[in-house]
Write a structure and sequence with these properties.
It is built from 13 helices and three strands. The chain is mostly helical and 346 residues long. It has three domains: 33 residues; 165 residues; 108 residues, Orthogonal Bundle (Helix Hairpins). It has a three-stranded mixed β-sheet with strand order 1-3-2, with helices on both faces. A hairpin with a 6-residue loop joins strand 2 and strand 3. Helix 7 packs across helix 10.
Amino acid sequence: MPSPTNNFSNNFLSATPAPKHHYWLAVIGVLTWLILVGVLLYNRQSIIDWFRLLGYVPPNAVITLANDDTMTPYTRHLFYLNRPQLLTSVTSFRLHCPEDENTIVLGCYHPDQDGIFIYAVTDPTLYGVQQVTAAHEVLHAVYARLTSAQRTQLDNELVAYDRHGLTSPLVKAEVKLYEKTEPNSVYDEMSCTFGTEIADLPAGLNNYYKKYFYNRQAIVAYENHYQGEFASRENIIASDDTQLMSWKADINSLEALLKTLLMSLNAQSASLNGLRISGNIAAYNQGVSTYNSAVDSYNEKVKQIQALISQYNQLVDSRNQVAGQLSVLAGALDTRITETTKPLTP
């Protein structure tokens, strides 16, 4: 018979140890999750930007401005992120850029990369205004994303240049205006103004702007071009006004001289008439020659003043034409709110 002991022992199965790899899978999963969260946090701004640009197709005019300003990929990214709008209507433009209504504004940047608006100057004489404005406003977007350390370094360089290197009267006046109207944003405005309007900058500032524009001098050239349209006309007017003042003095002097000569001629004529009436013909004939010589001299002075008055009037017409051109150019940039441009309210 089979042994019962052997049959009893055969009813037991060997125990299998629990696998140990589940712990490490859990650790790997947590680490993966933490890494993923870290990557998302590190790239949070890039992800937000990606969503904000999703589906955005920049208009050709916006692409052209980015190309004209030689924006680097990062600068172009910020430019498109703000979905720039070019507005030809003062009323519409001012709805988006409601700064001081009595100040001429050509563009504005909304904080937190929330929009760039540019006044579309259509006068071909002022070609370049939009390019300079676009570069100025996108530099606001750049400044907004600087780290605290980067901003401190840039601000120090801007202040040093403002105090010891800035010579442009126009830019100095702009900085003074910013100090008055935007005292909390002066450094931000300096960074935009110096970068778009001044050709020669210290090495530190030049290196800063190289990160955002391949050829910053192209932007400065646009600035110089359209500012030159104003400056050349202002110089002509100033020169004409100087010449007109000189001619006016000459005319006044000649008028006074002619008045004196005419009084002398009238006195001589009366004397000659007296001699003729009294029958003193010899004295009369002797005086006629002197009188006629004085008349000839007087008439020459009359011709001289007439020619000078003609020159004066021609220059006045020419000067006023230039002044009219200057007025038109100024009007093309004038975005101040007036009764005719003020937005209607319900």
